Amino acid sequence: MLINLILLFALVLAALWTVTTPRLIRAIVGLAITSAILSVIMYQLSSPLAAVFELSVCSGLISVIFVVTISFTRRVSKEELLVRRKQKIIKYWYLPVILIAAGLLLNHYLLANLNSSVLPAQEGDVRNLIWNSRHLDLFGQAVILLVGALGVVVLFKEPKK
Amino acid sequence: MSAPSMYLFVFFGIFSALLLITGIYCMLVSFNLIRIIIGFEILVKAATLLIISAGYACGKSALAQVMVITLIVIEIVVMVVAGGVALWAFRHNDNIDPRELGNLKG
Description:
The structure holds 2 protein chains of 2 kinds. By secondary structure, chain A is mainly alpha-helical.
């Protein structure tokens, strides 16, 4: 349970750093770290297949797509970055306070009357479930991927001069 | 759901709520489309954590994994299309400020 607690704190801290850092590229690295920590938590919660998906797709592919998108946009100057940093401090100093207050309140109201032992998870066969019970999901995923591919073709193509 | 499982679910649920607050705050405060997408990503991470912890607490990890895989596929497509929209906004307005999206046709 202690390792889960440490991982969950690391997850929230990584998300906080992602949101508060002024440089976009650092925010993307923070998002990748958040995904990596989440995948470790998923592995801890006996969901290894979803953890592998999370690590490869969310931590890897999405970071690459973000970097590609940013590389098409304009680089900010040092003066602009300094102004942004000041604006960020003004905008985001409430967030850690809100998070600590929300964490304490939720902890006080939700966890106070509950038992502290943990049940082991039951194992299930993901392959059987995904191919037999949830096969419509696969059809939906295929359609969504096709739509996404078409979206990439339309949105990322160079405009005609 | 028994009391120990409920404890586990609530424990992970609290951290999921904190991630949710972080994502919503980022989406509300930022005036940069890519940062708004990053806020959305953090919201999706909160939902993923909640689904996985619910599956673990109920002893239905397999079903939770299947749902999370579907969620990840949808997440990446939404993310890519949103990135493309941000890129189009940049080409039209020379910045990615969502307040200037009103300049687009339609």
